[in-house]
Amino acid sequence: MFNRILIADDHSMIRLGVSLAIEAAYGNVTIDLAEDYFETQKMLQEKKHDLLIMDIQMPGVAYSAVRHLKEISPAVKILLFSGFRGDMLRQFISEGADGYLNKQCSYSQIMDGINTLYSTGSVFPPEIMREYISQSERKDPKKLLSEREYEIFLLLVQGYGNLEITNRLAIQPGTVSTYKKRIFTKLKVNSIPDLVKLQIEMEG
């Protein structure tokens, strides 16, 4: 079982409740507490933790937080503990988070999640993984577009208009419009700025 656990949450009642539940279940485990991201960084630098249970909405948390914490302590397992779901959660999964539990779950579910994380190396509810995989695929135009569609996609994000694309590729204006509609549909976007944002995310 995990020997040293860091619980990072800005709500004292949650820190206390989770720590008491873990102590009751496992007994001989050392538990440290942090109330914000900066204190979390400091504790990971000073002590060797096996598991970090972290609220992703506490003060100081930003994109790349999980990546930075993994750089500080490569061996630590990071269990995201939050009621929040969205782009930041997907970002943290892509950065190497090892699990996610909703704050609405019971203490027994928390213990089950920790046990699963320890025995298998990860713990993610199926709906979270489906959402993450779907989002990842949506953000990769190369996987969803045909070769010609991707060629036009790249021209669109570079600022080429329909007429310029028509002349450059020697195709009919109506054909460009048809391809553009297909690209928008496949990538689930509504405008050229959305395409540009998607390309920036891919390059980032």
Structure description:
- The protein is of the alpha/beta class and 204 residues long.
- The chain folds into two domains: 4-136, Response regulator (Rossmann fold, 3-Layer(aba) Sandwich); 140-203, Winged helix-like DNA-binding domain superfamily/Winged helix DNA-binding domain (Arc Repressor Mutant, subunit A).
- The protein has eleven helices and five strands.
- It has helices spanning 12-26, 37-46, 65-72, 87-94, 107-120, 126-138, 141-144, 147-157, 162-169, 173-187, 192-203; strands spanning 4-8, 30-34, 51-54, 77-81, 99-101.
- It has a five-stranded parallel β-sheet with strand order 2-1-3-4-5, sandwiched between helices.
- The longest helix is centred in the first third of the chain and has 15 residues, at 12-26.
- The two termini are 37 Å apart.
- 24% of the residues are buried.
Major sheet:
5 strands, parallel
Helical percentage: 55-70%
User: With helices defined by DSSP (H or I, 4 residues minimum), what is the helix count?
Assistant: 11
> How does CATH name the architecture of the largest domain?
3-Layer(aba) Sandwich
Domains (count)? 2
Query: H/E element string?
Result: EHEHEHEHEHHHHHHH
CATH homologous group name of the largest domain: Response regulator
Order of strands across the main sheet: 2-1-3-4-5
Report the CATH C-level class of the largest domain.
Alpha Beta
Oligomer: single chain
Tell me, what's the shape?
elongated
Q: Over the alpha carbons, how many angstroms does the gyration radius reach?
A: 22 Å
| Helix-and-strand structural type | alpha/beta
How far is it from the N-terminal to the C-terminal residue, by CA?
Answer: 37 Å
CATH topology of the largest domain: Rossmann fold
Strand residue percentage: 5-15%
